[in-house]
């Protein structure tokens, strides 16, 4: 099995399906350029048949991006596939991602099709798409709630028609990590031609487990592609978050042992760009990209960090694009952290007694003000004439 994990970013397609997150052609192109700098393997640029604007955005991205595969979603019908292929014509590397639902509830209530009709349409659409591009991804929408025997038949058939990636979405975020991992493993074991395709996970976050489920799909199930979005943007509670899943892979390489091409130092820039473009604010305590992700506020932690960063840091802020970690000066800060900040600010104290006096003033202020900024410290020490 390959040691390489494909990172498939769908910020511009599934992320955009988040209510209120729609983007213009130029905004999408700007984000696509940042995704290329981030070195994601595949950029799902949109859904060509969904609107003229999306068609044009995919076309512009396909004509611009050189270092990542550019992909368009399409339903499993000839018109959608033709539009996807047309939009992707200028791409250095193009992928068509075609899907049809396979769960009983979706087939009966949404598609109003029998399982046999769904199977035929899945086969026919992959065959049709193969005439236009070589790289074909097939998704069985709502795969996780599908009947296993039927799903195996569909997957075997579309691989025979030429699908090169098989995506097993947890469309409604219903999965539990261990169960989802075992589900992928069972499918791979039961489908006779399973090794002819790369298996992919696509998890939604309705129960807050999209990242955990994706990791289990890789570790237990043997999937080698993760579909994810910047900041976890996406329908309802969102999709698997790219920054979290990539940094989990990196930080716990001892456990996952897979190669990920992403340049993690571009993560923060991508997060900020997506947040500013969509207006979706990143919560301060969001892993990796939240304002507090590398901030230390308590005295005990600050003291530990000053002695050795790995006391309270499992990864470096700089590795994901922050200029440095942050020591928050406030009422929980200790004397050592205060003294270090004075040094960083170029404040010279003549004696330990002066440091003690300044620290006492700082604590008084910190009781009144939740965060003490550098300017506050400078004002405090100069006002009181503690330092020259
Ligand atoms: O969640 C889902 O099932 C999807 C498919 C179209 C891949 O987004
Ligand atoms: Zn989705």
TrEMBL record:
- The answer to whether keyword 4Fe-4S applies is no
- Signal peptide limits: none
Q: What class of enzyme is it?
A: transferase
- What start-end ranges are recorded for coiled-coil regions in this protein? none
List the pathway annotation.
Answer: Amino-acid biosynthesis; L-leucine biosynthesis; L-leucine from 3-methyl-2-oxobutanoate: step 1/4
- Cofactor(s) this protein requires: Mn(2+)
Q: Which UniProt keywords apply?
A: Amino-acid biosynthesis, Branched-chain amino acid biosynthesis, Cytoplasm, Leucine biosynthesis, Manganese, Metal-binding, Transferase
The protein's annotated catalytic reaction(s) are: 3-methyl-2-oxobutanoate + acetyl-CoA + H2O = (2S)-2-isopropylmalate + CoA + H(+)
**Ranges of residues in domain Pyruvate carboxyltransferase:** 5-268
Q: Does the keyword Manganese apply?
A: yes
Identify the EC number(s): 2.3.3.13
Partners and quaternary state? Answer: Homodimer.
- Task of the protein: Catalyzes the condensation of the acetyl group of acetyl-CoA with 3-methyl-2-oxobutanoate (2-ketoisovalerate) to form 3-carboxy-3-hydroxy-4-methylpentanoate (2-isopropylmalate).
Q: What family is it from?
A: Belongs to the alpha-IPM synthase/homocitrate synthase family. LeuA type 1 subfamily.
This protein's name? 2-isopropylmalate synthase
Which species is this record about? Rhodoferax lithotrophicus
Identify the gene encoding this protein: leuA
Parent-protein residues present: 1 to 388 of 512
């Amino acid at each position: 099995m390959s040691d390489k994990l494909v990172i498939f970013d769908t910020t511009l397609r599934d992320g955009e399906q988040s209510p209120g997150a729609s983007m213009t052609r130029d905004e999408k192109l700007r984000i696509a350029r940042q995704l290329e700098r981030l070195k994601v393997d595949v950029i799902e640029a949109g859904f060509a048949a969904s609107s003229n604007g999306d068609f044009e955005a995919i076309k512009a991205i396909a004509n611009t991006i050189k270092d990542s595969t550019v992909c368009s979603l399409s339903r499993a019908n000839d018109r959608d596939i033709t539009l996807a292929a047309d939009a992707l014509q200028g791409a250095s590397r193009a992928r068509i991602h075609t899907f049809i639902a396979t769960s009983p509830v979706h087939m009966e209530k949404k598609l109003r099709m029998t399982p046999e009709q769904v199977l035929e349409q899945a086969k026919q659409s992959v065959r049709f798409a193969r005439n236009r591009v070589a790289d074909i991804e097939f998704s069985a929408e709502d795969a996780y709630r599908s009947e296993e025997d039927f799903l195996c038949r569909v997957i075997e058939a579309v691989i025979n028609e030429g699908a090169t990636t098989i995506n097993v979405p947890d469309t409604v975020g219903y999965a539990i990590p261990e169960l989802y991992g075992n589900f992928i493993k069972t499918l791979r074991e039961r489908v006779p031609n399973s090794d002819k395709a790369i298996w992919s996970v696509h998890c939604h976050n309705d129960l807050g487990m999209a990242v955990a489920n994706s990791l289990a799909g890789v570790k237990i199930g043997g999937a080698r592609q993760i579909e994810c979005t910047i900041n976890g943007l996406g329908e309802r509670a969102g999709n698997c978050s790219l920054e979290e899943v990539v940094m989990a892979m990196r930080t716990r390489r001892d456990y996952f042992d897979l190669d990920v091409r992403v340049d993690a130092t571009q993560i923060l820039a991508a997060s900020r760009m997506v947040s500013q473009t969509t207006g979706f604010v990143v919560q301060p305590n969001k892993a990796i990209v939240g304002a507090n992700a590398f901030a230390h506020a308590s005295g005990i932690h600050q003291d530990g960090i000053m002695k050795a960063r790995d006391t309270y840091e499992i990864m470096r802020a700089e590795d994901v694009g922050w200029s440095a970690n942050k020591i928050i000066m406030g009422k929980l800060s200790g004397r050592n952290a205060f003294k270090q900040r004075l040094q960083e600010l170029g404040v010279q104290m003549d004696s330990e007694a002066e440091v003690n006096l300044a620290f006492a003033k700082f604590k008084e202020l910190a009781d009144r003000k939740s965060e003490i900024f550098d300017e506050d410290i400078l004002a405090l020490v100069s006002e009181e004439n503690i330092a020259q």
